[in-house]
Design a protein that fits this description.
transcription regulation, five-stranded parallel β-sheet, 13 helices, alpha/beta, 292 residues, transcription, WH-like_DNA-bd_sf, Rossmann fold, RpiR-like_SIS, Arc Repressor Mutant, subunit A, DNA-binding, 5 strands
């Protein structure tokens, strides 16, 4: 669990002053907790002893232990491919890379599924299946491939699906067409892209519902998202793994497809006719029987 998770889990048990402190910490998380204990207290408008009591109530040994966890999280979210590779290489077991990857991916899948609530999944599926809403999809430098995958399938399943171009200078043109109630799907994993946070905030101000695919530490976009999928992504590599994120994406595609299968099947039949008319795909040649 992240420090943010711990705060949320204990929030109901906190005193009024502690809740005020917790809200301050979450408002600009994790940066708001990285100052001195006096600065953290002043920013939240509480006393220094309140800070000390709350971090112990959250299960930390003291404020230094609390800050160490925050620094560790921040370091993880800012890790470059080189530093990630070095960290894994230093502790790599002697087993084959296939086994190491399989172990990491299965662990990621277990941890992710333990945190994904069915109500959250069903809510995201309902948003994407609602034909009255237009869908906009965008991914980052690496996650653009996942955004493209989701777009390709949803475009077949239902109308009014748009993939946003990767050039941020063109984004205002897409936002111009967004209406209150539309859905913006954002893929944003660590090292989070500043432009994604800006796009999410502007879209939310227009009443757009945001579905976010992020990592276990959570992109800043999570603060404005209606539905958040926090996927575990670490692997024995310089690169983060997309396997579990793709798992969630494919499950969502099936859920959306099944919810309106009659309309989807009609669209698929029409699309197949267009493929045949354009001769896009090769068709098997009929076998020619030999002469008797």
């Amino acid at each position: 669990m992240t420090v943010s998770d711990v705060i949320h889990a204990h929030f109901a048990t906190l005193t009024r002053a502690e809740k005020q402190l917790a809200a301050s910490l979450l408002d600009n998380y994790p940066v708001s907790g990285l100052g001195s204990i006096t600065t953290v207290a002043e920013n939240a408008g509480v006393s220094t002893p309140t800070v000390a009591r709350m971090v112990q109530k959250l299960g930390f040994r003291g404020f230094p232990d609390f800050q160490a966890r925050l620094h560790h999280e921040l370091e993880a979210t800012l890790s470059s491919p080189i530093s990630k590779h070095d960290r894994w290489a230093a502790n790599a077991p002697g087993t084959h890379i296939l086994n190491r990857f399989a172990d990491a991916i299965m662990n990621n899948l277990r941890q992710t599924l333990s945190q994904v609530e069915t109500a959250e999944f069903n809510g995201a599926s309902a948003l994407l299946a609602d034909r009255q809403r237009s869908i906009y999809i965008i991914g980052g430098r690496i996650t653009k491939a996942l955004a493209d995958y989701l777009f390709t399938h949803l475009q077949v399943i239902r109308p009014h699906v748009t993939q946003i171009a990767s050039n941020p200078s063109s984004w205002p043109h897409y936002v111009l067409n967004m209406k209150a109630g539309d859905v913006l799907v954002i893929f944003d994993i660590r090292r989070y892209e500043q432009e994604m946070e800006t796009l999410g905030r502007i879209a939310r101000e227009r009443g757009v519902e945001i579905v976010l695919f992020t990592d276990q530490w959570a992109s800043p976009v999570a603060k404005v998202a209606a539905k958040v999928f926090r996927v575990h992504i670490e692997a024995p590599s310089a690169w983060d793994s997309s396997v579990v994120t793709l798992f969630i994406v494919e499950a969502l595609i099936e859920a959306v497809q099944s919810s309106g299968w009659e309309e989807t099947s009609d669209r698929m039949k029409t699309l197949e006719g267009l493929f045949e008319a354009s001769r896009l795909f090769r068709k098997p040649r009929p076998e020619v029987s030999g002469k008797s």
